[in-house]
Design goal:
This protein is an alpha+beta fold. It has a 6-stranded mixed β-sheet with strand order 7-6-8-12-13-14. Strand 12, helix 27 and strand 13 form a beta-alpha-beta unit. The relative contact order is 0.11. Keywords: Membrane, Transmembrane, Transmembrane helix. GO terms for molecular function: secondary active sulfate transmembrane transporter activity. It is found in: Membrane. Its main location: membrane. It is a multi-pass membrane protein.
């Protein structure tokens, strides 16, 4: 028992602390503790640091540009090689089928999807910093590329007459599909090349931070809208319904309307094959997810379905008997590299910017998930360079933009992939399909490939269930999600992404412009200050108001600071001052008329004279100089008591105001000027303004802005709110021992000229003039 008591004693001692130290203002603290300002490096020092080179530095730069030099020498062959081979084979089979399927989204022949699943991996193997992502096509990015391709090479540009036609469009006109496909491949590869250039530029300029502006709710809403766009674009392929290629605002609505208008022409063989593929793929994927701990390798259902569907199509001759849409032709081997069409850059620069950002954001967000899981780091700027060079390289070989696919990366990681060796092996599987197996897939129905795409959209559609959770946690984030999703569906992916980004930034601006604020009070017996409205036992110091403004202060929210000040103190300092001036004018006129007397004890009426002091505020002022000969009289006016003039002067129940700037990170020049004006406004009505809990950079900023002078000094700045409260309490005790809180007014009535007062609504430079007028009446 005694031992237990002895063990509890130290814990009891640690549950309280007592600190004895001086009350620190900024001036006092700097005097006692010498400040050490940071010395920025000179231009010469920066140049020397940037241009200096050593063997170690050169090797570090080389490793940062070629991350393979970092991880390959540490590769554990015995532990990782077998896992990487199994993972690479599984991922390669999935990549082959997804490459064929995603080519439909780009509106190019399906064979080019195999090239896009092969070439980007070769360069990323050397340059990438993620060990687990599977590089290749992704449906969202493929659809964005496809929208550019369809807008620049629509079917209407390839209508021809006579026997040279190789296809028919939805209106019965003949289309030169060979020329159309060649032009679309050129546009897609040129766009890929331009996206690669932009990504390399972003990486070299070290602006990988740009992806931080794509918040998770924004990405979630965007990818969900993209999944819906992908679903609609593949629906007409599953139905084998011919429609126009719409692009731009409301294109998805027009596509849906025309698809349902032509639903009577649905090919039953394609519809059945597509529905069966969707059902089987989603069922087996669900089994893979539920029993992933028991199944060592996920069932490659896409590969199995594709092989079965190809065999059935070939055996039943579905193309001739049921007019089913099949792949028909897959080029065998590789095409020679071709340069991009530079003349097209000007038409696709805007779209390429958004595609470059989205492709990078998807890859980095997926890569960071696995980097966190396996405890290694991803270099965002190097990822920009890696994907940029990969897209430049693959663009020369007729590929479309590469990023990573969530489902393919999940296969690579879940089957035991440890490094990008698995990625290079998956590229080998795709290579085999390009060289040897392409012809075997020619009888495959396009509706099966479209169904594979739709089945892989399940994860993105499931993001809809994040909205209720977001709404409970943060309503603003939920609004960003919904707005981005709706905008991307209605306006298209490129404009929708821009609209969502602007809306997200707008919410940040509004949250800064209208931040949280409140009056604070003290927890008795502590140095803790909390909101008065939130806690029952919080006590406001007598005669002191404490305002905490939780935001940077700049030109957009300075009015919010002023309105929060009025709400906290309960009055408008400018109106109080103007009302006092009005009362002083009336008192002066009545004294000169002999209706009031000014004595040291206050203002009294002459006996036997009717007191006409209670005049209406609307009575015209008499500026006539009455020249009443008197001597200088010093009187006292208590502005919180009843005055012998009918002027409604708001009571000022405080003598001090503390602004808690603990959450203020910066001030602009408008804020600095406005705060100085606020100080002067309150000083004129005998309310001292103090600042507390500020950050050091604010003091430096105020010094640069010439904020401090003879009136506004550093001794009104305190390290904590409690320091300021204790200082005010000490000052109040000293002042109470000397004089009561009254304003002593000296009336120079022997002067022949009346004293002028000017009412102001928002004084700035005129404050000094009004203060001088007050001084002429006050001592």
């Amino acid at each position: 028992m005694a031992a237990g008591e002895r063990a509890a004693e130290p814990l009891a001692e640690l549950s309280h602390y007592v600190v004895a130290r001086p009350i620190y203002s900024e001036a006092g603290f700097q005097e006692e503790n010498e400040r050490r300002p940071p010395l920025p490096p000179t231009l010469r020092e920066r140049a020397q640091a940037a241009c200096s080179c050593s063997r170690k530095r050169a090797f570090q730069i080389t490793k940062s540009f070629l991350p393979i030099l970092e991880w390959l020498p540490n590769y554990r062959v015995k532990e990782w090689l077998v896992s990487d081979i199994i993972s690479g084979v599984s991922t390669g089979l999935v990549a082959t089928l997804q490459g064929l399927a995603y080519a439909l989204l780009v509106a190019v022949p399906v064979g080019y999807g195999l090239y896009s699943a092969f070439f980007p991996i070769l360069t990323y193997f050397f340059l990438g910093t993620s060990r687990h992502i599977s590089v290749g096509p992704f449906p969202v990015v493929s659809l964005m590329v496809g929208s550019v391709v369809l807008s620049m090479a629509p079917d209407d540009n390839f209508l021809i007459d006579g026997s040279n036609a190789t296809g028919i469009n939805g209106t019965g006109m003949l289309i030169d599909t060979e020329s159309r496909d060649a032009q679309r491949v050129l546009i897609a590869s040129t766009l890929t090349f331009l996206v690669g250039i932009l990504q390399v530029i972003f990486g070299v300029l070290q602006i990988g931070f740009i992806v931080r502006y794509l918040a998770d709710p924004l990405v979630g809403g965007f990818t969900t809208a993209a999944a819906f766009q992908v679903f609609v674009s593949q629906l007409k392929i599953v139905l084998n319904v011919s429609t126009k290629n719409y692009n731009g605002v409301l294109s998805i609505i027009y596509t849906l309307i025309e698809t349902f208008e032509r639903i009577g022409t649905t090919n039953i063989a394609d519809l059945i094959a597509g529905l069966l593929t969707i059902f089987v793929c989603m069922l087996v994927k669900e089994i893979n997810d539920r029993f992933k701990h028991k199944i060592p390798i996920p069932i490659p259902i896409e590969v199995i379905v594709t092989i079965v569907a190809t065999g059935i199509s070939y055996a039943a001759d579905l193309e001739k008997k049921y007019n089913a849409g099949i792949v028909k032709s897959i080029p065998r081997g590789f095409l020679p590299p071709e340069p991009p069409d530079v003349s097209l850059f000007s038409q696709m620069i805007a779209a390429s910017f958004s595609i470059a950002i989205v492709a990078y954001a998807i890859a980095v967000s997926v890569g960071k998930v696995y980097a966190t899981k396996y405890d290694y780091a991803i270099d965002g700027n190097q990822e920009f360079i890696a994907f940029g060079i990969s897209n430049i390289f693959s663009g020369a070989f007729s590929c479309f933009v590469a990023t990573t696919a969530l489902s393919r990366t999940a296969v690579q990681e879940s089957t035991g992939g440890k490094t990008q060796v698995a990625g290079i092996i998956s590229a080998g599987i795709v290579l085999i399909a390009i060289v040897a197996l392409g012809k075997l897939l020619e009888p495959l129905q396009k509706s099966v490939l479209a169904a594979v795409v739709i089945a892989n959209l399940k994860g993105m559609f499931m993001q809809v269930f994040d909205v209720p959770r977001l709404w409970r946690q943060n309503k603003v984030d939920a609004m960003i999600w919904v707005f981005t999703c709706v905008a991307s569906i209605i306006l298209g992916l490129d404009l929708g992404l821009l609209a969502g980004l602007l809306f997200g930034l707008l919410t940040v601006v509004l949250r800064i412009q209208f931040p949280s604020w409140g009056g604070f009070g003290n927890i008795p017996g502590t140095d803790i200050y909390k909101k008065v409205k939130d806690y029952k036992n919080v006590v406001e110091p007598e005669g002191v108001k404490i305002l905490k403004f939780s935001s940077p202060i700049f030109y957009a929210n300075i009015d919010g600071l002023k309105s929060s000040l009025k709400s906290t103190v309960g009055f408008d300092a400018v109106k109080v001052y103007n009302k006092r001036l009005k009362a002083l004018r009336k008192i002066q006129k009545l004294i000169k008329k002999g209706k009031l007397k000014a004595t040291k004890n206050g203002i009294i009426s002459e006996p036997g004279i009717t007191n006409e002091a209670f005049e209406t505020d609307e009575e015209p002022e008499d500026n006539e100089d009455l020249q009443v000969p008197t001597k200088e009289v010093e009187i006292q006016v208590d502005w919180n008591s009843d005055l012998p003039v009918k002027v409604n002067i708001p009571k000022v129940p405080i003598h001090s105001l503390i602004l808690d700037f603990g959450a203020v990170t910066f001030l602009d020049i408008v804020a600095v000027r406005s705060i100085k004006t606020i100080i002067r406004e309150f000083e004129r009505i005998d309310v001292r303004v103090y600042f507390a809990s500020y950050q050091d950079n604010l003091i430096s900023q105020l010094e640069r802005s010439a904020f401090f002078d003879d009136i506004v000094r550093k001794d009104i700045f305190f390290l904590t709110v409690h320091d300021a409260v204790l200082y005010i309490r000490n000052q109040k005790t000293c002042s109470d021992n000397q004089d009561p809180i009254f304003e002593k007014i000296s009336l120079m009535q022997e002067s022949k000229e009346p004293i002028e007062f000017t009412e102001t609504t928002r004084p700035d430079d005129e404050l000094d003039v009004q203060e001088e007028a007050m001084r002429r009446l006050a001592s």
